[in-house]
């Protein structure tokens, strides 16, 4: 029976997911396929490379590094997440990513990107990770504070804009056991925002603007759908059991550690039920 692990994004809220995945690695929880969105993809690759503790380590180590992520990078490079540091120096030198273990993993890995021309999600299988890093970067590139990522003649940004939690993709592809890791508490719902700035910024991409404008509605319906599937025991959900007020580019060390520890605690508390569900 095919098993799928879905990882929601949310910038540094995704450090919660890192705590969950580190608990999975420690307890040898395995799945057939992982699909990550935005930070869920960027942090989720470490699950396949079996590098427990790497995500929390490099985030804390680079908290004050102006070459990592933040306003300084945005001003200098046009990207709030520094391309040269995050997708070169960090993974090859500062805190090396284990490409060999990732490539040898029997687990398939997908990331979600949003095509800014069509406004639609695309689900990219990562089977040659060193040559597909741009897809991961695109998945985590937040609109307005990131430049559009160009790959093979297409233009991409944050996968969370078009499909924040790809539950329908999982069901459509025949997965019978699905674990969903969310980064917001159960009662969270998105609100409709004034999209004036966004419309001006992406005036040449009307379908992308349309997708973004309706994102709150699609997201809320997806949350409700997942909750209905959860009640039917068709999916297993791990989500923050309490609210930690943490921003997408959080610089507070204590909040980051709190979110990470919450992920570990929630995963540990659900471990027995998860193993039962997977059986």
Describe this structure in words.
By secondary structure, this protein is an alpha/beta fold. Helices cover 45% and strands 14% of the residues. The protein contains twelve helices and eight strands. Strands 1, 2, 3, 4, 5, 6, 7 and 8 form an eight-stranded mixed β-sheet that branches. Strand 1 (3-7), helix 1 (15-26) and strand 2 (33-37) form a beta-alpha-beta unit. Helix 1 packs parallel to helix 2. The longest helix is centred in the last third of the chain and has 26 residues, at 253-278.
Number of helices, counting only DSSP H or I runs of 4 residues or more = 12
Note the quaternary state here. Answer: single chain
**Based on DSSP secondary structure assignment, what is the total number of beta strands?**
8
Beta-strand content bin: 5-15%
Main sheet: strands, sense, barrel: 8 strands, mixed
Element order, helices and strands?
EHEHHHHHEEHEEHEHHHEH
Q: Mind telling me the C-alpha Rg? A: 18 Å
Portion of residues within helices? 40-55%
- What structural class do the secondary elements suggest? alpha/beta
Gross geometry: globular
Which regions have little confidence, pLDDT < 50, spanning 5+ residues? none
SSE map:
Layout: E1 3-7, H1 15-26, E2 33-37, H2 39-48, H3 54-61, H4 71-77, H5 83-94, H6 99-104, E3 108-115, E4 121-125, H7 133-139, E5 149-151, E6 154-158, H8 167-172, E7 177-181, H9 196-201, H10 206-213, H11 215-231, E8 235-238, H12 253-278
Please sum up the structure shown.
With about 280 residues, this protein is of the alpha/beta class. Helix content is about 45%, strand content about 15%.
């Amino acid at each position: 029976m095919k098993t799928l692990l879905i990882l929601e994004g949310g910038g540094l809220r995704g450090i919660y997911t890192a705590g969950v995945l580190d608990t999975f690695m420690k307890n040898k929880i395995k799945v057939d396929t992982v699909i990550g969105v935005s930070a869920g993809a960027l942090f989720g690759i470490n699950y396949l490379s079996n590098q427990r503790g790497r995500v929390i380590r490099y985030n804390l180590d680079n908290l004050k590094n102006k070459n990592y992520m933040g306003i300084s990078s945005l001003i200098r490079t046009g990207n709030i997440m520094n391309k040269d540091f995050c997708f070169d120096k960090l993974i090859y030198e500062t805190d090396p990513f284990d490409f060999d273990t990732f490539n040898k993993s029997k687990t398939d890995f997908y990331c979600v990107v949003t095509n800014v021309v069509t406004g639609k999600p695309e689900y990219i299988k990562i089977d040659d990770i060193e040559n597909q890093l741009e897809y991961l970067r695109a998945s985590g590139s937040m609109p307005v504070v990131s430049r559009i990522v160009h790959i093979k003649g297409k233009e991409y940004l944050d996968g969370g804009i078009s499909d924040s939690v790809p539950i329908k993709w999982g069901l459509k592809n025949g997965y019978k056991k699905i674990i969903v890791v969310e980064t917001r508490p159960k009662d969270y719902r998105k609100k409709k925002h004034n999209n004036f700035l966004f419309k001006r910024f992406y005036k040449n991409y009307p379908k992308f603007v349309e997708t973004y404008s309706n994102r709150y509605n699609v997201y809320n319906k997806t949350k409700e759908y997942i909750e209905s599937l959860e009640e039917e025991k068709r999916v297993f959900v791990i989500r923050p059991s309490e609210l930690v007020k943490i921003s997408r580019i959080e610089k507070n060390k204590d909040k980051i550690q709190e979110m990470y520890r919450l992920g570990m605690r929630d995963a540990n508390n659900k471990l027995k039920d998860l193993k039962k569900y997977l059986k």
